[in-house]
Amino acid sequence: MDVTYEGTRREIATDEGVIVYHEAGEHNDDALLLLHGSGPGVTGWRNYRGNLEYFARTHHCYIVEFPGFGVSDAVEGHPVLTAGSSVIRFMDALGIESAAMIGNSMGGVVGVNLAIKHPDRVRKLVTIGGVGPNIFSSSPSEGLRLLQEFTDAPDRDKLVRWLNAMVYDRALVTDELIEERWEAAINPDAAKTAAMMYGSAAFEMQQKFLADADFPPYWAMMHKVKCPTLLTWGRDDRVSPPDMSLAPMRLIPDAQLNIFPKCGHWVMIEAKAAFEASVTAFLDQ
């Protein structure tokens, strides 16, 4: 099975531009969508390239590249909302009626929102950190503050500090990873998306908007998630500390929680084997 970058890369035209994706697996009736997170230099391929071959053995896998991160065509709107609509456009374009989904951080929020608003499209949901409100930990977290500092005035040193906050084992932050992330982070579309999500001005505007809004935040609606849900978390996550898991664990009716020791925000990378085994058991239930 070819699971290289070029061997799996595909494109599909939609009514709002081209969506790039990676596809692997022969199990046509068992679709699994992998939804990436946010942050400097992120792409779906970089989040899940190490997991694709494993999950493609049992599922027809699609790594979806969200608009505005320098890969798929950018569209107007807030990145979390445009990511959700792009998943529906992607599924419609390929004729995928419903699918299991794995979402890392922002991708988990996208998956939760889809499960709330389009319950018939999400069969099962796996989230990796990032879902829910800070309960005992400070907000924004250490990792998000470092991300904000990088977004306001990008440089390599700030990128390294943020990357070190993403992992438990700093040996994962190699020179190759730093260079890869830096080159992608300075892409104009990616920089614009980052400013909308994490810049100081955008953060202050979002806080004011939430304070004045007359509707509840997405996490307060998680009781509407009907599909079986597996919440996965790194015990040492400094971006979305594990106390955040308490709200989705309680509010989502059919939720279970798996916390991985000696693991930061990238559970699918840092606890790869244990994560893959846990997700496989969940999807097989």
UniProtKB/TrEMBL annotation:
The keyword Hydrolase applies. Keywords: Hydrolase. Residues 31-271 form the AB hydrolase-1 domain. It comes from the Bacteria. Coiled coil: none annotated. GO terms for molecular function: hydrolase activity. Pfam families: Abhydrolase_1. This is Alpha/beta fold hydrolase.
